[in-house]
Amino acid sequence: MAxxxxxxxxxxSNRLTKAVKMVKSPKTGAYTFVSAIMAPELVDDFFKxx
Length: 50
What we know:
By secondary structure, this protein is mainly β. It is built from 1 helix and 3 strands; from the N terminus they run βββα. The protein has one helix at residues 43-48; strands at residues 4-10, 15-24, 31-38. The longest helix has 6 residues, at 43-48.
């Protein structure tokens, strides 16, 4: 994993975080971006799993 990006987003009642990570494809060797919007508590779990 080459880079981690975390941006904080706020709505009226919820505080959300958009996390983006680069994942290297085992098949081609190319990097792809995977992003998700989640609660701030779940960001560490997002970056730990492949």
